[in-house]
Amino acid sequence: MTSLVPELDAAGDLHFVLCDYGRLGKAFVETDPARADRETVVEDILSGELSEPLRVIALRADGTWLDVSAEVALEVVKGATVARDTLTEGARNFVEAHFGATEQPILT
């Protein structure tokens, strides 16, 4: 029987992002395995492509999963700081929910 879970290699985890679609509800974003690495998720949050992220779950190669929202939130802050960019409202909400409010200038 074929598994519905994509094949993972030892190089990385698959990341699934739960987003808030307002009146339509909450759902995990459809994920292309080629774009489900942590770096791409961080870039997509920073760019606003993932406009209202709520939580990020990582599926590991061994079949286990864990909530990596706080780690991703920290990487979003670092990425915005390095780029000297401001966060979108959705990214700011995500960071504040998982990393706490901060006084860094990118959040003002």
Describe this structure in words.
The protein is α+β, with helices and mostly antiparallel strands and 108 residues long. The chain has one domain (14-107). The protein is built from 3 helices and 4 strands; from the N terminus they run E-E-H-E-E-H-H. Strands 2-1-3-4 form a 4-stranded antiparallel beta sheet. The longest helix is centred in the C-terminal third of the chain and has 15 residues, at 69-83. The radius of gyration is 14 Å and the shape is globular.
List the helices and strands and how they pair.
Elements: E1 14-20, E2 26-28, H1 38-47, E3 53-59, E4 65-67, H2 69-83, H3 89-99
Helix pairs in contact: 1-2, 2-3
Q: Nutshell version of this structure?
A:
By secondary structure, the protein is an alpha+beta fold.
How many helices? The count is 3
Estimate the strand proportion: 15-25%
Mean pLDDT: 84
Cα(first) to Cα(last) distance is: 52 Å
Biggest sheet, spatial arrangement of strands: 2-1-3-4
Task: Report the strand count.
Answer: 4
Contiguous runs where pLDDT drops below 50 for at least 5 residues = 103-108
Class by alpha and beta content: alpha+beta
Backbone shape: globular
Helix content: 25-40%
Number of domains: 1
Major sheet size, sense and barrel closure: 4 strands, antiparallel
H/E series: EEHEEHH
Write down the Rg: 14 Å
What key attributes describe this structure?
alpha+beta; 19% strand
